[in-house]
Design a protein that fits this description.
It contains 4 helices and 11 strands; from the N terminus they run βββββββββββαααα. It has 231 residues and is an alpha+beta fold. β10 and β11 form a beta hairpin. The protein is globular, with a radius of gyration of 21 Å. The protein starts with a strand and ends with a helix.
Length: 231
């Protein structure tokens, strides 16, 4: 089973560190949770974190006030190092200082948008520059990006599409393909009605197509809810 590290950044338990906790684990306000937090806005059993097929997965346990990851309401989510998990009035950081520093360097090497020094250091504490690190260290912790660095607040998640699920049966793969084909077809039909004026002006669509986009978003939300097991 995977082991995870969570640090409480905000809330009544601010500063608490849960290091190398074995999964599966639950977070909530009652005894019996792996991590018990003193927060009246957290449900008795609020979220579950488990390992599945090499991924660390967070599941909201139908909590009263919901769960947010990097500011977005979440029912089911694959966690990435540096993710911020908000439950009730508490915010938890996923990952160790070294894991986060390593991910920062990966982002920099790929030329992607990177988190600012202030965001990372606020979450993890000051990290030694590369020049002060031991040569034998396996993790480089240089976070000095320079004045032209673009901030990437709230998350170290690469700003790109998620990976495709692996290990699907033929029937499951066909179902996923059918869902994506449906959304692709509807999106294409809606975009074909857009009017793009010259210059850097907003693209306009008819009110009918606008409502079509809202309906499409509603259907995606319903799929997400069903996949998350809330029905």
């Amino acid at each position: 089973m995977a082991r995870v590290t969570l640090q409480v950044l905000d809330g009544a338990d601010r500063g608490a560190l849960f290091d190398e906790i074995e999964t599966p684990l639950t977070i909530g306000r009652e005894e019996g949770n792996t991590i018990q937090l003193n927060d009246e806005r957290i449900s008795r059993f609020h979220v579950k974190i488990q390992e599945d097929q090499g991924k660390v997965v967070l599941t909201d346990l139908e909590s009263t006030n919901g769960t947010r990851v990097n500011g977005l309401d979440t029912q089911l989510r694959i966690l990435q190092v540096g993710d911020l998990i908000a439950v009730g009035r508490s915010t938890l950081l996923y990952g160790t200082r070294e894991e986060i520093a390593e991910r920062v360097n990966v982002l920099r090497s790929l030329g992607e948008r990177a988190p600012s020094d202030s965001m990372v250091e606020k979450a993890t504490g000051p990290l030694k520059p590369r020049s002060e690190s031991n040569e034998d260290d396996s993790v480089a912790v240089d976070l000095h990006w320079g004045s032209d660095s673009l901030g990437f607040p709230g998350t170290l998640h690469l700003p790109g599409p998620p990976d495709m699920p692996e290990g699907l049966t033929p029937a499951q793969a066909a179902q996923v393909a059918e869902m994506l084909e449906y959304f692709h077809g509807r999106t294409r039909a809606l975009l074909h009605g857009a009017v793009a004026p010259d210059g850097d002006q907003p693209v306009a669509i008819s009110r009918e197509r606008w409502h079509g986009l809202i309906d499409l978003q509603a259907q995606i939300a319903q799929y997400l809810r069903r996949i998350g097991g809330s029905e």
